[in-house]
Amino acid sequence: MINGNEITNKKFGIFMTVAFLAAYIPLSVAGLAYKGGNTILCLFLFRFIAIFIPLIAVAVSGLPFKKLGWKPKFSFKYLIASLIGPQLLSWIGAGIFFLFNKEAFGIGMDSYLAMMPAELAGMIDTSETAAYAYLIVMTIMSLTFLPISQILPSLGEEAGWRGVMYPYLKNKLGPVLGKLVGGALWGIWHWPLVILGSYFYEGDYFGKPVLGPVMICLSLCAFGILIDYVYEKTSCIWIPSLMHAAMNSSAMPLMFMLKGGYSHLSILGPNCFDLLGCLPVMVVAAEIVIAGIRKKEN
What we know:
This protein is mainly alpha-helical.
């Protein structure tokens, strides 16, 4: 791991400039593409271009790239926690959402098809049997193949955020405030997608367009604490990358549980980036912070 004392103000300034300004171009185009229905272009610009810019920013800023923790450390406990933890918390959050919004629950293809180009959506079987089959397959994939396949894209962000931004901010602001500010900045990095493309939060949700950008910061503050925790425990950049990938993958099965016509509730759930969907993550993050404060006091 890079020690926060090793990151000078100048190098951190270069890192943040590259990580944000360079990424805002593809992220903005991706947001507009998503708004226009071009999901493929959006995902290409976001998941294959912008997401690697924080990693590039680490190298460009002249920081000790080799100290990020490239040697794999297969701690079984943290490996399983990173792979399964976000999934379990996401499902609990979805349960809370549907508990308060029972009318929105229904196994179907509406949310899944809404993310796809019209020409592809028209080729998919939309029967109830197909919806259940997709749900089962996607659940299995979200616990296995999807997180593992997304480690490299997630690494693009993790090298920058947990590798550089969090150590610098924790060193300057303290461990708690540093993580909270880091999580807010991580959310702000996603703002072009949220504001221009209504990515993460669909439809005319309550408080649009203000609450969406706020909510992404809150949810990533919580997830940032969890991801930084496993990085601190393992000093291996691959472990937080796996948790990041699992966090993203956890949303996939939930697409088959939300009825069509309820996108206005997207600020609440069922995904882990939404208010009710993120509650379990916030609780665990708070417990980690409190435990850290008590340990320091003792």
